[in-house]
Design a protein that fits this description.
CATH topology of the largest domain: Aminopeptidase
Strand order of the largest sheet: 1-14-7-2-3-4-15
Mean pLDDT: 77
Number of domains: 3
Helix content: 25-40%
Structural class: alpha/beta
Largest sheet: 7 strands, mixed
Shape: globular
Strand content: 25-35%
CATH architecture of the largest domain: 3-Layer(aba) Sandwich
Number of helices: 11
Radius of gyration: 22 Å
Length: about 425
């Protein structure tokens, strides 16, 4: 896909100390995107304007090619949310005001629709291949040309109008998580990443900010299965999904009344690392917040654009899987579910995990005879699974359990699945031919 030519760098305005309106806009914008509209109290909004003492940067909307906001408050609005990459050697605030050489660590479209009462969150993998400046590039590299360039890139790919821009510096992410008392997450297996420093036992845990950040940034993610460590989506796609998992956990935690205890600290954490477009009007955001005050985390539909690997001239990229990607983008544009609840039409990948010749073929034949859709069959990379695992993507646990019930053995869990599959069946030694 060919994108518009790179834009010249834009100027990021440093607000004057008394610019409380911009502070208010940035805080409320973040809360909208994070679905904190469930507070439903306009007084909280005004408290935010007076509580946050740090400045919030703004970018002229004329430099961003943003679409005009709908005149009706019942119409949906789409935000482009960028998580700014803080690599080793960068200070916490180097992401603001200087976009040279910077990359977008998180690229996400968020649509808030008061009419349907839903919030959609579509992640765009940062290694997605685009044509930029006359050559192939990864979409996150367009951020080096300034926010306007990445707005153009995402808008061209998604085919939807983008009304507002929100940039979050992840150096302050730990402060947000700690301010709300941590986030609760469940891990079906012990997990680790030796490079990011993440390690956790199986079970439900409350993660502090540092642990949540290490999990969300993991690129060498491993799980302990049957007494052995195995890589599980140890790539950029897996990292994107983990970032979504963390954001969903943050949203869920903020939705709890107890998180109000840390609201003051949350506001303090937000102010110093948020950048917005200057067209994000205070009145528009307050009214949108009120219109969506009844939205809960259950109303949030999150997905990642389906992609596959491509190597070109020695460089690794990701390219869309069609027609899946087009269908997902169409669903996002129409405000329809991007990840329908899985049923018997779930796409299943079968993997031989017991080392017995023919196990994957036997399982494939059995599932196909039962009316299930097996899209791939192969080896798991390990051959010592004691128990057959049926792992589903988000919203797919009932489908995984249906497979277990059909087989009469195995364990159903929700986790991460290979690209192009909704469920993966890892055949263990408990299988009849094992």
């Amino acid at each position: 896909m060919t994108l518009p030519p790179p834009r010249p760098p834009v100027t990021v305005a440093e607000p004057a100390a008394p610019s409380r309106n911009w502070v208010k806009r940035a805080i409320i914008a973040f809360l909208i995107v994070a679905n904190v509209v469930v507070f439903g109290v306009l007084g909280v909004v005004w408290l935010a304007a007076h509580k946050v003492s740090t400045s919030v940067s703004t970018i002229p909307s004329t430099d961003l090619s943003l679409a005009d906001s709908p005149t009706s408050l019942q119409d949906a609005r789409t935000f482009l949310v960028i998580g700014s990459d803080s690599r080793a050697g960068l200070t916490d605030l180097e992401g603001f005001g200087d976009f040279g050489g910077q990359r977008a660590d998180v690229i996400m479209l968020v649509k808030a629709d008061p009419r349907s009462g839903r919030v959609q969150m579509l992640s765009v993998p940062r290694d997605l291949k685009v044509q930029y400046g006359g050559s192939s590039a990864k979409i996150n590299a367009t951020f080096a040309g300034g926010p306007g360039s990445i707005v153009d890139a995402v808008s061209s790919i998604a085919g939807v109008p983008i009304h507002h821009y929100l940039q979050v510096e992840f150096s302050g992410f730990t402060g947000i998580v700690d301010a709300i008392g941590g986030i609760e997450m469940t891990f079906p297996f012990a997990a680790r990443d030796l490079k990011s420093g993440f390690f956790i036992d199986a079970g439900t845990h409350v993660l502090d900010g540092r642990t949540a950040l290490a999990f969300s940034r993991s690129r060498q993610y491993q799980e302990l299965r049957d007494e052995g460590w195995v890589a599980v989506e140890a790539n950029d796609i897996g990292r994107t999904k983990r970032q979504q998992d963390v954001l969903m956990a943050v949203i869920t935690q903020i939705d709890r009344p107890s998180s109000l205890d840390g609201f003051s600290a949350l506001l303090d954490a937000l102010g110093g690392f948020v950048t917005t477009d200057d067209s994000l009007g205070t009145d528009e955001i307050i009214q949108l917040a009120w219109a969506m005050r009844s939205v809960t985390p259950a109303d949030l539909d999150a997905a990642t654009l389906p992609v596959t690997d491509l190597t070109e001239n020695g460089a690794s990229y990701l390219v869309p899987i069609e027609p899946n990607a087009a269908e997902m983008l169409a669903a996002f544009g129409a405000g329809e579910p991007m990840n329908p609840v899985l049923g018997t039409d779930a796409r299943i990948a079968v993997q031989n995990g017991n080392g017995r010749v023919g196990s994957a073929v036997f399982m494939t034949d059995a599932l196909t005879a039962g009316g299930f859709d097996v899209v791939s069959s192969g080896n798991s990379g390990r051959s010592d699974y004691a128990t057959t695992l049926v792992i589903s993507r988000a919203n797919g646990l009932p489908a995984a359990q249906a497979i277990v019930d059909f087989l009469g053995y195995g364990t159903a869990v929700e986790g991460r699945t290979p690209s192009g599959a909704d469920v993966v069946v890892i055949v263990g030694l408990d299988a009849p031919n094992g």
